[in-house]
Design goal:
The structure holds two protein chains of two kinds.
Chain A: E1 14-17, H1 24-38, E2 42-48, H2 66-102, E3 108-114, H3 117-124, E4 130-134, H4 149-157, E5 162-165, E6 175-178, H5 183-194, E7 203-208, H6 213-228, E8 233-238, H7 242-253, E9 257-261, H8 267-273, H9 276-283, E10 288-291
Chain B: H1 2-9, H2 14-22, H3 25-50, H4 54-71, E1 79-81, H5 83-86, H6 90-96, H7 98-117, H8 129-147, H9 158-175, H10 181-195, H11 225-257, H12 263-278, E2 285-287, H13 289-297, H14 303-319, H15 321-324, H16 329-343, H17 347-354, H18 357-373, H19 376-395, E3 399-405, E4 411-420, H20 425-430, E5 440-450, H21 453-468, E6 472-476, H22 478-481, H23 498-502
Parallel strand pairs in B: 4-5, 5-6
Antiparallel strand pairs in B: 1-2, 3-4
Classes of the chains: A alpha/beta, B alpha/beta.
Chain lengths: 292, 504
C-alpha cells in the first residue's frame, strides 16, 4: 500500500491532521511511528474551518448604506477572528513539528488551510499515503464517549487508510486484525501483508461470529497470505457480536493496534442501528487503522 | 467556474446537505423569523403594487422562499414576492385579471429553468457595476413611488403615524437590537389606531388575506396561442428581471458572507420556485436585496434561514390573519420607505463626481429608463448597451500608426500598433496619407490586432486606395495580426499572445 511512490521516487507523505484538541500530541506521535516504519515524510495539516455567523442584531432594519456597513463589520469581525485562529494554529503546528523533529522524524512539512476538513482531505489525499487523525476533534470533548463529528464522515469519504490515534501513544507491540470476510477486510489483509508498517509485529487474525465452512476457508486464506508476507499470525474465532467481543479481545490479548475494514452498512442503516465499525472505534482504547 | 462544477456535483452529497442546511441552524432559525416579520409588510405592499389581493403576494412569498431554499444556488439568500417583478405585471392584471398573472408566473418560471439549463447565469458578467448600481437605485425609487398613492389624499392622521413608524424603525434598534424593529412598528401603530379608533385605511381594505393553507390549482386560462401571446411578453420581462435581481443579490450575499454561489443552479431554482408558485395562486418573485441583507445581518447563512422565513411567514399570516388585516397602511408605508432608503445606493451619488463620467452616464441612464418604462429589464438593457459602447470607445484609443520614409522617398513603411476593430476602423483608414506619391507601401501589422470584419474591410480599403495611386502594397505580419478575428480566442494555448496586447 504505502510502497506506492511518486514518479520522482519520493514516498507519499502521511497526512497528520491536528487541531487544538487534546489529541494533537498523540496524533503527532502516531504519525511519527508510522512514518519511521514506512520511511515516509509527514505533512502536518491543520484546517481552519469556516466562520460561524454569530450575530445579535435582530433589528431587521436596513439603514442607508446598510450593505457597505454590514460588509465592513463582517470583514472586521472575520479579520480579527481569523488572525487569532491563525496564530493559534501556527503555534499548534510548530509544537507538533518540534515534537516530531525531536523524535527523529526528518521530513516534516507544515500545512495550514482554510476550509472544511473533509474537503481539504479530499483535495490532498491523492498525494498522501495515509491519514492520521485523533479520535475526537476540539469541539467534541475528550471526556465524552462519543466520536468526533468529522471522523465518521472522513472514514466514509476518503480512500486512503486512516490511522485513528488513541488518547496517548505507546509503540504497538501486537496488532489485531478484525476480519469479517467483507471486501474491505480482504483489502486490509492484502495491504497488511505487503506493508513495512507491520514488520516484526505479532498479529492476531480475529473473527467474531459463527464460522461456517466458507468463512473458515477465507480465514485460512487470509492467515496464509499474512504468513507469506513474513508476519507471525495466530487466528482467533469467537462466536459473539463483534461490537462487544472485539474490544474485549483487544484487552485480553494485549493488542495495542487494531486493523479493520471501513464501514459496511449504508448510511441510512447506520443511522438506525449504528455501525459495528463506529462502535469498535469508540470502545477500543488503542489506535485503529481503517482500510477502505 | 471550478467551484461551481464542484457545487453542482455535490448537490445532494451528504456533507454539502449538512453544511448548507444544518451547520448554522440556531442563527438560521432566528434570522428566518426576523426576515418573515419583515417579509409580511413587503409581500402585502407588493401585492398592492401589482393590483392583486394581499394573499397573492403572501402565498407567493411563502412558496418562493421555501422552494428557493431547497433548489436555489445561493444559501442564505432570501427570495419572495418582489417589487421588481410586481411593477411588470400591473398592466396584465388590469387588462386580463389574476388568472393570467398566475399563468404568466408559471411561464416565467419555465423560462428561468430554461435559462439555467442553457447556463445563461454567466451572461451576468456583462452587467457592469454601474448598471447594477443603476438597477438598485431604480428599484429603490420604484418602491418609494409605489408608496405615493398611500401618502396622497389620505386622512391627515396618516402623516404623523408614518413619521412615528419611521422614528421607531430607525431609533428603536438603538435601544435594543433583540426585537425586530418592523414588528415593533407594526404593533405600536396598530395599537394606537385601535385604541383611538382612528379611521385609517388598513391592510384589510386592500383585499383578501390568506385564511387557509395554499392549495394547488391550475390557472384558469384557455390553453390557446392567444393566451400565450398575451402572457409571453410579461413572462419574458419577469423572467429576465427576476434572474437579474436574483443573480445580483447572489453576488451581494457572496460578498457579504465570503462564500461562492452556483449561478446556473440559482436560475433553475428561481424557475422552479416561480412555476410552483403560479400553481398555488401566488405571483412571480425573485431574490430580494434588502431582505437578504437583513438575513445576513441577523446571522442567517444557510438554506434553513430562507426555508424557515417562508414557513414562519405562512404560519404568522394564516393564524394571525385577523390581526394582520387591522394593520394601518401607514405602518406598511413607513416600512417600505425604510426599505427604499436602505436599498438606494447613496454613495453612488457622491461617486458621480469621483468616477469617470461614462460610468455615471450608464448609472443615470439605467435609472431614468426604468423610471419611464417601469421595466427594470429595459433599464438594464440600456445600461449594458451603453457600457459596451463606452468600453469600445475607450479601447479604440489604444491604437497608433507611425511611418518612416525611405531615403529615396519612394517607399513608406507604415507601422500599425494596437486594436483595430469597428470602433477604430475609421481612425485606421484616416491615418494613411493617400496624397503622397509612392512607389511602394509597406504596412507592418505585426504589433496590431485585427478583431473583426470591419477592420478587415478597412484594411482592404487602404490597400485598394494605395494601389489606385500606383503604389505596390506589401502587408507584413498579417497572419499574426488577424489571429484575433475568430470568435473564440485560444489565448490559453499561446502563453505569449497577451504580450503584444499590452504593447502600445
Amino acid at each position: 500500500m504505502v510502497a506506492e511512490t511518486k514518479t520522482d521516487g519520493a514516498a507519499h507523505p502521511l497526512l497528520a491532521c491536528i487541531d487544538g484538541s487534546g489529541y494533537a500530541d498523540s496524533v503527532a506521535d502516531h504519525a511519527g511511528w508510522a512514518a519511521g516504519r514506512l520511511g515516509a515524510p509527514i505533512t502536518l495539516l491543520q484546517v481552519l474551518i469556516p466562520r460561524e455567523a454569530a450575530s445579535d442584531d435582530r433589528s431587521g432594519r436596513i439603514i442607508a448604506g446598510a450593505r457597505r456597513q454590514l460588509l465592513q463589520q463582517l470583514a472586521d469581525l472575520d479579520h480579527e477572528r481569523a488572525k487569532l485562529l491563525q496564530a493559534q494554529a501556527r503555534l499548534d503546528l510548530d509544537e507538533a513539528a518540534e515534537r516530531l523533529t525531536t523524535a527523529g522524524v526528518e521530513q516534516v512539512t507544515k500545512l495550514l488551510r482554510h476550509g472544511e476538513l473533509i474537503e481539504t482531505l479530499h483535495a490532498l489525499e491523492p498525494e498522501a499515503a495515509m491519514i492520521v487523525i485523533g479520535k475526537r476533534g476540539a469541539e467534541t470533548g475528550v471526556e465524552s464517549g462519543s466520536l468526533g463529528s468529522n471522523l465518521e464522515r472522513i472514514l466514509r469519504g476518503v480512500h486512503r487508510p486512516v490511522l485513528i490515534a488513541a488518547r496517548a501513544f505507546t509503540p504497538p507491540s501486537r496488532a489485531l486484525l478484525a476480519f469479517d470476510g467483507r471486501s474491505s477486510a480482504m483489502q486490509a489483509v492484502d495491504a497488511v501483508s505487503r506493508s513495512p508498517l507491520f514488520v516484526d509485529l505479532p498479529l492476531t487474525l480475529a473473527h467474531c461470529g459463527k464460522p461456517d465452512a466458507a468463512m473458515t476457508r477465507r480465514l485460512d486464506d487470509a492467515a496464509g497470505q499474512l504468513s507469506a508476507g513474513g508476519l507471525s499470525v495466530e487466528t482467533r474465532v469467537e462466536e459473539a457480536e463483534p461490537q462487544t467481543a472485539l474490544p474485549a479481545m483487544v484487552g485480553r490479548i494485549g493488542a495495542d493496534l487494531v486493523i479493520m475494514g471501513a464501514y459496511g452498512h449504508s448510511r441510512l442503516r447506520t443511522m438506525v442501528i449504528g455501525s459495528t465499525t463506529a462502535q469498535v472505534i469508540r470502545d477500543c482504547k488503542v489506535p485503529i487503522l481503517v482500510y477502505r | 467556474m471550478a467551484h461551481q462544477e464542484v457545487a453542482a456535483r455535490d448537490w445532494f452529497a451528504p456533507h454539502a446537505l449538512g453544511r448548507e442546511w444544518l451547520s448554522n441552524a440556531r442563527y438560521d432559525l432566528i434570522a428566518g423569523l426576523v426576515v418573515a416579520l419583515a417579509l409580511i409588510p413587503e409581500a402585502i405592499a407588493f401585492s398592492i403594487i401589482a393590483g392583486v389581493d394581499p394573499k397573492v403576494g403572501l402565498y407567493a412569498s411563502f412558496s418562493i422562499a421555501v422552494f428557493c431554499a431547497i433548489t436555489g444556488g445561493r444559501p442564505g439568500m432570501i427570495s419572495a414576492a418582489t417589487a421588481a417583478t410586481a411593477v411588470l405585471m400591473v398592466d396584465l392584471v388590469r387588462d386580463h385579471g389574476l388568472q393570467y398573472l398566475l399563468a404568466a408566473t408559471v411561464l416565467a418560471g419555465l423560462l428561468q429553468i430554461l435559462a439555467g439549463v442553457l447556463r445563461l447565469g454567466h451572461v451576468m458578467r456583462f452587467v457592469s457595476r454601474s448598471v447594477m448600481t443603476g438597477f438598485v437605485n431604480a428599484l429603490a425609487i420604484l418602491i418609494f413611488m409605489a408608496q405615493v398613492p398611500e401618502m396622497v389624499g389620505v386622512p391627515l392622521l396618516t402623516y404623523p403615524l408614518i413619521a412615528l413608524g419611521l422614528a421607531i424603525l430607525y431609533l428603536f434598534p438603538m435601544l435594543t437590537k433583540a426585537v425586530p424593529a418592523p414588528l415593533v412598528c407594526l404593533t405600536v401603530i396598530t395599537a394606537i389606531a385601535l385604541y383611538f379608533e382612528l379611521d385609517l385605511r388598513t391592510v384589510g381594505d386592500m383585499g383578501a388575506l390568506p385564511d387557509t393553507l395554499p392549495i394547488f390549482l391550475i390557472p384558469d386560462v384557455p390553453l390557446t396561442l392567444e393566451t400565450l401571446e398575451i402572457i409571453l411578453p410579461y413572462s419574458v420581462g419577469v423572467a429576465v428581471v427576476g434572474l437579474l435581481e436574483s443573480l445580483m443579490t447572489a453576488s451581494i450575499v457572496d460578498e457579504l458572507t465570503d462564500t461562492p454561489s452556483d449561478r446556473n443552479r440559482e436560475c433553475v431554482g428561481q424557475g422552479i420556485a416561480n412555476t410552483a408558485t403560479g400553481f398555488i395562486g401566488g405571483m412571480a418573485g425573485c431574490a430580494m436585496i434588502g431582505q437578504s441583507i437583513i438575513n445576513v445581518q441577523s446571522g442567517g447563512r444557510g438554506r434553513l434561514s430562507t426555508f424557515s422565513a417562508g414557513i414562519f411567514l405562512l404560519i404568522l399570516v394564516v393564524f394571525l390573519g385577523e390581526y394582520v388585516s387591522l394593520i394601518p397602511m401607514a405602518a406598511l408605508v413607513a416600512i417600505m420607505v425604510m426599505v427604499s432608503i436602505g436599498t438606494f445606493s447613496w454613495s453612488s451619488i457622491r461617486k458621480l463626481r469621483e468616477q469617470p463620467a461614462s460610468s455615471g452616464v450608464v448609472m443615470v441612464a439605467t435609472v431614468l429608463a426604468v423610471i419611464f418604462t417601469h421595466n427594470l429589464a429595459i433599464g438594464v438593457g440600456l445600461g449594458v448597451l451603453l457600457s459596451g459602447i463606452f468600453f469600445a470607445a475607450k479601447i479604440a484609443q489604444i491604437f497608433r500608426v507611425t511611418s518612416t520614409l525611405s531615403a529615396d522617398a519612394r517607399t513608406r513603411i507604415y507601422t500599425v500598433e494596437g486594436q483595430v476593430f469597428f470602433a477604430s476602423a475609421d481612425a485606421f483608414v484616416a491615418a494613411f496619407d493617400f496624397r503622397e506619391v509612392l512607389e511602394r507601401v509597406e504596412i507592418d501589422l505585426t504589433r496590431a490586432h485585427i478583431w473583426d470584419v470591419s477592420s478587415v474591410a478597412a484594411l482592404d480599403t487602404v490597400v485598394m486606395k494605395f494601389r489606385r495611386e500606383g503604389a505596390e502594397v506589401v502587408l507584413i505580419g498579417l497572419n499574426k495580426a488577424s489571429e484575433t478575428i475568430v470568435d473564440k480566442l485560444g489565448v490559453h494555448d499561446k502563453p505569449g499572445v497577451l504580450d503584444p496586447l499590452s504593447a502600445h
